[in-house]
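Suppose a classmate hands you a notebook page containing two proteins, each written out with its sequence and a corresponding row of C-alpha cells. How would you begin to make sense of it? This section walks through that situation. The first entry is reproduced here exactly as it would appear on such a page.
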Amino acid sequence: MDFARHKLIGPYRKHYGDDFCGTKTWLRRVERGSTRISAACPPAAHEVHVIKVKIDFSIFTQEPKSIGSVSGSIDLVTAPNLGDKIWFTVTANSVPFPSRGFDGCLTVERRMLNANPINSELFVLLSDLVVPTDGDARAVAEYLEEGFGLFVDIYGDD
C-alpha cells in the first residue's frame, strides 16, 4: 500500500498513530478508505480518565518558621510515584502565579493507598514548601486556595 497517496497521512498520522489506538487500527481504517478523522480511533480511546489524589504538605519560611499546612484533592491523569514532581503552575481558572518564592513544583515523598475498595483513594505527602518571607507564604497560600481549591491553614490566623 502506498501511504503517501492517502489523505490521512501527515499530521493525522502522528495524532492517530500509536498514541491512541495503535498503528494496525489506523492502517485498517486507511485501507478501507475512511476519510472521517473521527473513525480513525474509537471514541473511548480519546477519553482521559483522571485520578483524584489527596495531598498534604507544609509551608515554611527560610528563617525557618512554620507558616501553615496545605491539604485537599487534586485531579491527575496518572497516580504519582515516589520522587515524581507535581507542578502547580497552571490553574483552570487563570489565577496569576505568585511573583516570587515558589517555583510551582513539589516532590512526592510518601504515598499511601486505602485498602477499602469502596473508598479507594490515593493519599500523597509532598515535600515541604519553603518560601523567603511570610508575605510570600500568604501569596502562595492564596494562589493554591483560589487556583486549585486546596485548604490552607495558616498558623496563628483565626
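The notebook's second entry, a different protein, reads as follows.
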Amino acid sequence: MSDVFTNIPHCPEPIEIMRERLPLALVKVNRAGPDRLAIDLDKPGDLPSHIFDFEDGMRIVVSRDEIKGVIFIHVSFSWFLPKPSGKTDADVRSGMQKGLSDLGLMLPLREHADLLTAHIPHWFWDEVTHVGIHEVFARMEKEERGVRQ
C-alpha cells in the first residue's frame, strides 16, 4: 500500500541531481489560506520540479508557502513502498531527516508533524528563522495581544 496520492510515478534520481534541482522547487511562493490549504491551483505535489524520489521508496515534496503573510519552507513525506519489517517509527523518522540532509535542507524535524493529511506528514519552517509554524503563529498572536492591550 502506498501513502502517495499523485499521478506522478515514483522516479528515483541520484542525490546529486536532486540537490541541483532543489533551488527550482523554492523559486515560486504558493499562497495558502488561513486554514493552510493552498489557494493556488498548482499543488507542488503534482509538479515534478517539487518532487524528490529516493531509492528506498520515500518521496519528499518541497515548496515555499505563504501563510498569513509569512513564507514557510513546506516539506511533506510519503512512501511508494511499504515500511520494511523491523523498522520502527524512529527508523523511518531518521530516514526522513537523512533525506532532508541529503537534499541540503538542514531543517530539524520536530517530534510531531505540523499537519497530517491522508497519512502524509507535513512540516513547515519559517523561511528566515527556521522556526516551526506553530511557534511563529503563537508569537504573532502574542504580539497581536500586546498591541491590543
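A careful reader of the second entry would note: Residues 15-148 form one domain.
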